Amino acid sequence: MCLRAELTRITQGVDLDKHPDLLAELLATHPHSVEIVQLADPEVDFNCVMMALDLVGSVEPPCSALGRYHMDTSFLRHLIQEGNLTPMDEANPGALAVYYAEGEIRHVGIVLDGGRVRSKWGAGHLYEHDAWEVPDTLGDELRYFNAIDPDEAFTLFKEFKGWEN
């Protein structure tokens, strides 16, 4: 299996507490630079879209009306379609790294110095990794976009949902 398939195996259906050990074991057969930078915390749950738009902790709890079950990749797609996120030719620090599969957005992260990406994989941990060191289920195409201010993103989200300001 390739690294990306192994990352999928590790992150799907495996106890979150085992991820650090499994990532370490994976180094023996699949060299990688994936690091867990924040362990999952069920009290502060968020998804990749909330993390990438810098809205973690600035909106209501995840199961509320403004939580992660509403702010998802459909909102990210809307921001791109409406021109709120503009495409970039290269990965500059602070940009959004948007992963696609079959033309649909599957995942988003933030580009760091050196082209590394910080992203949240599902209900799991927050990771830092090279651009293509992600589970294969997150897509096979990568595009970069300029990020927007979190306050603007939140205002646009309320408009997207048809909620009053």
Entry keywords:
alpha+beta, endopeptidase fold (from Nostoc punctiforme)
Tell me about this structure:
With 165 residues, the protein is α+β, with helices and mostly antiparallel strands. The chain has a single domain, classed as endopeptidase fold (from Nostoc punctiforme), CATH 3.90.1720. It is 26% helix and 20% strand. It contains five helices and seven strands, in the order ααβααββββββα. The protein has helices at 3-11, 19-26, 48-52, 73-81, 150-161, and strands spanning 35-38, 87-88, 96-101, 104-111, 117-120, 126-129, 141-145. Strands 1-6-5-4-3-7-2 form a seven-stranded antiparallel sheet. β4 and β5 form a beta hairpin. The radius of gyration is 16 Å and the shape is globular. It starts with a helix and ends with a helix.
Give the SSE map:
Blueprint: H1 3-11, H2 19-26, E1 35-38, H3 48-52, H4 73-81, E2 87-88, E3 96-101, E4 104-111, E5 117-120, E6 126-129, E7 141-145, H5 150-161
Antiparallel strand pairs: 1-6, 2-7, 3-4, 3-7, 4-5, 5-6
Summarize the biggest pleated sheet: 7 strands, antiparallel
Strand order of the largest sheet: 1-6-5-4-3-7-2
Report the count of strand segments. 7
In terms of per-residue confidence, which ranges show pLDDT below 50 for 5 or more consecutive residues? none
Q: Could you name the CATH class?
A: Alpha Beta
Summary?
This protein is α+β, with helices and mostly antiparallel strands and 165 residues long. The protein has five helices and seven strands, in the order ααβααββββββα.
